[in-house]
Specification:
Elements: H1 2-27, H2 31-49, E1 51-56, E2 66-70, H3 75-85, E3 92-96, H4 105-112, E4 114-117, H5 122-137, E5 141-145, H6 162-170, E6 174-180, H7 182-185, E7 196-202, H8 216-236
Parallel strand pairs: 1-7, 2-5, 2-6, 3-4, 3-5
Antiparallel strand pairs: 6-7
Helix pairs in contact: 1-2, 1-4, 2-3, 2-4, 5-6, 6-8
Length: about 240
Amino acid sequence: MNYLRGIFFLGYFFAAGFYGSIIILILGKKRSAALDVFSRYSQYALNMAKINIKLDGAEHLPSNGFVAVHNETSWPDIIALQATLYNNYVDHAAVASQYGMIPFMKAACKAAGILLVPRGNRAGVDKVLNELVEYLKGGERVVFGGEGRLSGIDGVMRFKQGSALLAIRSGKPLIPIAFHGGQLLMPLQSCALIPGTIRIRFGAPIVSEGLSDKDARMLVDQAQAAVSKLYKALSEEK
């Protein structure tokens, strides 16, 4: 039963991405409305899998733009992020370019303000960072994965520097976010899924003012440590 639940969960999520993209393009939805389409279909997937979301720490969020950097252990974490953060807490996201392989997804992501990050393509990554920096300077909110991929562990892997570069170049703070539960409900190496709860916790802002690109490693290490601390606290609260 758990294997069937997991297969249906992921199958629905990717199929919904396809159909949602068609809806976005046919109806010509603007950024916020297009982002809401992805959010709603992600929530439907969580509902069917009987996965609940418990979020706290939103009082830490500044009102004039920030870079939210997070861990991601397995697929339920990503789907919970889209269902919960899109529009409610963030205006733009960066996801792996592989999402663009789903028919119509590339154009729909562009409409929704979701940028596709081409791994292994430095020029392409720089272009994405530059675009996100402009959004941030305009006071918008961006979410960026710290590890750059699903970790598949019950913990937090080493963060890449992308989120720190965004914060430094825009002068906006980094907001650490811990996602806890994805790997426990559906291990990345397995299709088996059990119902349960994904915990999302926002941490205190980490300032980037006065820093330059050469400080990116130091800043992102601070963010990783903050996410690890939040994750450990959530693990102990189970």
